[in-house]
UniProtKB/TrEMBL annotation:
Protein's UniProt keywords contain Lyase: no
Membrane topology: Multi-pass membrane protein
InterPro entries associated with the record: Cit_transptr-like_dom, CitT-rel, MatC_N
Keyword Transmembrane helix in record: yes
GO cellular component annotations of the record: membrane
Domain Citrate transporter-like, first and last residues per copy: 261-424
Protein name: UIT1 family transporter
């Protein structure tokens, strides 16, 4: 077999092994990069290591470190409690509050926004009788709505892959396309999963009053008033929370308005918070998402080897050779979507976008629209219980809920999304040719 075919077989084997066995895909990527690069592509080990994405490493470490600090010192909980207090009068707003929280956290760099919001949103839904599937999917779609902001991990990663190639790129389109599509999907599931039945329901302590009890699809429950008293207590705002809020604001302003490096600035803010408010900082440092850092950096290193070996060019030329650009674009969207439903979206994006670059360089379809479509197709399927976000929601369901039944409901919903999501992204962002 030629080096190109071997490198593709190795890539497929990596995803199969990482799906079936508890082996980090990034670790497999590093091993595969060394093996394929040195043995087949004629690269030295130093050449292979030169493909390591040092700038992305800093971004991942910095952002996850900062938000681990914010979670540890209670700042995230403070923001969520403030938001929860806003819906105490009108329960219909609750799913949208958690959607917005997840979107904001994701947009300003929280890689695991679902991990932050879901453990608070799901018990809230259980307590007040909100449909559990509705709440869980609102949290995930919220995180996906903000996932491609210019200062997010996904947004900076895609820009880092596309911009150096000289292919037309729009950070604004990349941000707004997933945002709009996920807002629309959230609106649809809000209606379909009973969100309208919450209209007119007001919450006094734990007892819903007004236009009837909310429909919860079998998940409804009301806690006693005594158990809910703590929700009415004013959240404590201390020095650590104030400084952390200032730090998050500084991160947003510094990176967007002044073009400062996301990774370096987030690390600087996290370290500064550790110096000024050291309590609990040691535990926060353990919150750095090393498994994700390993995953993303390993996959990207292997993709760099694929590029050096000529694999990316061969695959791209094969897609172009289909002769029907729109069909090729649709196939790429489904490739990213289906694989991402069973693996990491970050890892899939790390493969799908570089594979599409030779195809985009032909100019047969809008490069801006295609990149945005790939971004949507590869992430919208994160509702799957096999993906990280879906698994986090499933794990956050209260213990007294039948998780097996909830899991089956998630499977049905994710199946619909996997079947229609990539098609929707292609139909809206590629087919019209308006981007």
């Amino acid at each position: 077999m030629t080096p190109v075919i071997v490198s593709i077989v190795v890539l497929v084997a990596m995803f199969v092994i990482a799906t079936v066995l508890p082996v980090n895909l990034g670790a497999l990527g590093f091993v595969a990069a060394a093996g394929v690069g040195v043995l087949l592509a004629g690269m030295s080990l130093d050449d292979v290591l030169a493909e390591f994405p040092g700038d992305l490493f800093l971004i991942l470490v910095g952002l996850t470190y900062l938000f681990a600090v914010a979670h540890q010192n209670g700042t995230v909980d403070l923001l969520v409690r403030w938001s929860m207090r806003l819906v105490r009068g009108h329960l219909v707003a609750a799913p949208w509050i958690f959607f917005t929280l997840s979107a904001v956290f994701s947009a300003i760099g929280a890689l695991f926004a679902v991990a932050i919001v879901a453990p608070l949103a799901m018990p809230f839904a259980r307590r007040y009788g909100v449909n559990m599937l509705l709440m869980g999917m609102m949290v995930i779609h919220g995180s996906l709505a903000g996932a491609f902001s210019p200062i997010s991990v996904y947004g900076t990663f895609v820009a880092g892959v596309v911009v150096p190639t000289g292919i037309p790129f729009s950070a604004t389109t990349l941000f707004l396309a997933p945002l709009v599509i996920n807002v629309v999907i959230a609106g649809v599931i809000f209606v379909v999963l009973g969100g309208r039945s919450l209209t007119g329901v007001k919450v006094v302590h734990a007892a819903p009053t007004g236009a009837g009890r909310p429909s919860a699809g079998g998940d409804a429950a009301v806690e006693s008033e005594d158990e809910d008293q703590d929700a009415d207590q004013a959240p404590v705002v201390g020095k650590a929370q104030i400084l952390t809020l200032i730090g998050i604001l500084t991160l947003a302003v510094g990176t967007v308005a002044f073009g400062l490096d996301v990774g370096v600035l987030s690390l600087a803010i996290a370290v500064t918070l550790g110096i000024l408010c050291p309590a609990g900082h040691r535990e926060a440092a353990k919150g750095i998402a090393w498994s994700t850092v390993l995953l993303v950096c390993g996959v990207i290193t292997y993709v760099g080897v694929l590029q050096e070996a000529g694999t990316v060019d061969v695959v791209g030329n094969g897609i172009v050779a289909l002769g029907v650009p729109l069909i090729a674009a649709l196939l790429l969207c489904y490739l990213g979507g289906v694989l991402s439903a069973f693996a990491s979206s970050a890892g899939i994006l790390g493969v799908a976008i570089p594979l599409a670059l030779p195809f985009l360089q032909q100019g047969s379809v809008s490069a801006i629209g295609m990149v945005a479509a790939l971004a949507v197709a590869s992430t919208i399927v994160d509702v799957s219980p096999f993906s990280t976000n879906g698994a986090l929601v499933l794990a956050s369901t209260p213990e007294d809920i039948d998780r097996e039944a909830f899991y089956r409901r998630m499977l049905v919903y994710s199946g619909i999304v996997v079947a229609t999501g990539p098609l929707l992204a292609w139909a809206l962002l590629v087919l019209p040719g308006w981007l």
